[in-house]
Every structure is written in structure tokens, then in C-alpha cells.
Design a protein that fits this description.
18-stranded mixed β-sheet; 2 domains; Diaminopimelate Epimerase, Chain A, domain 1; alpha+beta
Length: 290
């Protein structure tokens, strides 16, 4: 029997069409994991999100994220897109908090004053001790563009690397096959975030690019799951002082791809809670028939 599902394409971390990061969003009731993967492959976006009814009262929805190649444990922009999808379908009101059950645990989210907020896990981190030179070679930049700031590796295998300037960041031309091979053979890291403290907007604190060829995404335009932990990374590296008070910053990504995105990040040290926030806009509504 033929199936029909309503599906949206939403640009997250922007209020302008064709900016930010696009994600597919749909309800996933009566869809198998294999069908979800096929739909994500058909949408051919960085991630497609699937919302289903939860099996307990601990969450309002189950939420799963798929790249065209694999299911992933965490995705920021597709969660922001999912919140927007619920809001447009009158299932999320201003001021309302909801909880998603995900592979990364229960994530608290809310819609407030035109912005969507998503909780991001706070991952343990350490200085990376692997071969840095081969990573820099694969990124397509000389060592002179990088300073002595340690490479920082999160428990979820996101690797953070600081570069000196915005010009140097935008000039990176990674060898994605080499990055894929390093990831697949060494299993030391899964994705790479390269960031600089030089920004396009004066109100922003950092600008970054994110490479994840191992997951089928050579470069992601605007990555919530990377920008959220960037704030604790900057604390760890000594660029932001943790005085015990709530910290709020704006980070940038996507400009070099022509998909400018701006992500709000807030960290509450007392509660060890990390949130990302942003706006979103629907660019496509349709029906998938299969």
C-alpha cells in the first residue's frame, strides 16, 4: 500500500530563506528505520528529522536524525527545524517547553519570543594527543595559520582546532577523502570544527567551519551540535572566563558557503546546562509518496 507523508524543508539559524542550514522534518509514525534512511537519502540534506510519539511520559516526542548515509546521535539545526515544524502545525506555542527523547538522552527545548531553544549535552573534553600535522595537511592549510592553542577533543569525538584569522579559515580547502580516511582508519575523532575569534559581525565572539565527511557531510553550513559545545571549549582553552555566572554568546558559521547562520549559545555553570538558540524559516512544504 502506498504511503504519503507531509514533509517540510526548514532553514535553521536564520530568518531568511536560503540562509542558515536546511533540514527536512516530518512525522515518522509507521515508518521503519530503513524507510527513514531512504527518505533522508531522497531529501539529500545534511539531516532529516523524524518525530514520533514517545513510549513514556518522560518526553513529548521521540526525535531521530538521519544524514543521507547514517543515523546520528545529535543534530542541532534539525532540532531547531523540528521545533519550527511543530510551531507551524500549532503543536508548540510561545513560552512552551517540550522534551525530546533522543539517542543523546532527554533534551529540553522551548519556543520563546520568536526563537527556538535546544538543550545540548555538555561533553567531557581533553587535549588531543594524536598526529596534528596530518590533520592540518588534510585541512589544506600550513601550520603557520595555526597558533599554539591545544586541539581539544570532546567525548563525542568532535575535534576543535583554532585558526588565527577569518581569512585563513575561509581559505581552507580540505581534502575530504584524506579527512574521511583519517577518521575511518584511526577512529580518534569523528568530525572537525575549525574556529577563529575573528568574526564577521562585531557582536559575535567566534566564527567556525565544520567538516564531517565520515558522516556523508563534507562541510555542514551551520551546526548546532558543534557551536553549543564551542562555548565550554573556549572556557577550557582560556578564551572565556568562567566566573560561575550564566554566559551567553553569539557564534557564526556558514558565511563562506553563502548560507550565513547565527547561533546563540548560553551556558549555566551552576546547573551545567548548555543551550543553543536561533530562528528558522520554512522554505518548502510537500508530500512524499512512496
Amino acid at each position: 500500500m502506498q504511503k504519503k507523508i507531509k514533509i517540510y524543508q526548514v532553514d535553521a539559524f536564520t530568518d531568511k530563506a536560503f540562509q542558515g542550514n536546511p533540514a527536512g522534518v516530518t512525522f515518522g509514525e509507521n515508518l521503519s528505520k530503513e524507510e527513514m534512511q531512504l527518505i533522508a537519502k531522497e531529501m539529500n540534506l545534511a539531516e532529516t528529522a523524524f518525530l514520533t510519539k514517545p513510549g513514556s511520559d518522560k518526553a513529548d516526542y521521540n526525535l531521530r536524525w538521519f544524514t543521507p548515509a547514517v543515523e546520528v546521535e545529535l543534530c542541532g539545526h534539525a532540532t531547531i527545524a523540528s521545533l519550527h515544524f511543530l510551531n507551524e502545525n500549532n503543536l508548540l506555542k510561545d513560552g512552551q517547553e517540550i522534551k525530546f527523547n533522543t539517542l543523546s538522552g532527554i533534551l529540553k527545548c522551548r519556543f520563546e519570543n520568536g526563537k527556538y531553544f535546544m538543550q545540548i549535552p555538555v561533553f567531557p573534553m581533553n587535549e588531543f594527543t594524536g598526529n596534528k600535522e596530518e590533520i592540518l595537511n588534510a585541512l589544506g592549510s600550513g601550520k603557520s595559520e595555526f597558533d599554539e592553542t591545544p586541539f581539544i577533543l570532546l567525548e563525542n569525538k568532535y575535534l576543535y582546532i583554532k585558526i588565527k584569522s577569518l581569512k585563513a579559515l575561509n581559505s581552507l580547502k580540505p581534502d575530504f577523502k584524506a579527512l574521511y580516511d583519517l577518521t575511518a582508519t584511526k577512529n580518534e575523532f569523528a568530525c572537525i570544527a575549525v574556529y577563529t575569534l575573528e568574526t564577521a559581525d562585531k557582536e559575535s565572539f567566534a566564527h567556525s567551519r565544520f567538516f564531517a565527511p565520515y558522516f556523508g557531510i563534507n562541510e555542514d553550513p551551520v551546526t548546532g551540535s558543534m557551536n553549543g559545545p564551542l562555548l565550554p571549549v573556549l572556557i577550557y582553552a582560556g578564551f572565556i572566563k568562567n566566573d560561575g555566572n550564566k554566559l551567553s554568546y553569539t557564534f557564526e558559521q556558514g558565511d563562506v558557503l553563502g548560507r550565513n547562520g547565527r547561533i546563540g549559545v548560553t551556558f549555566n555553570p551552576d546547573k551545567n546546562e548548555l543551550y543553543i538558540s536561533g530562528k528558522a524559516v520554512t522554505v518548502l512544504k510537500g508530500e512524499l509518496i512512496f
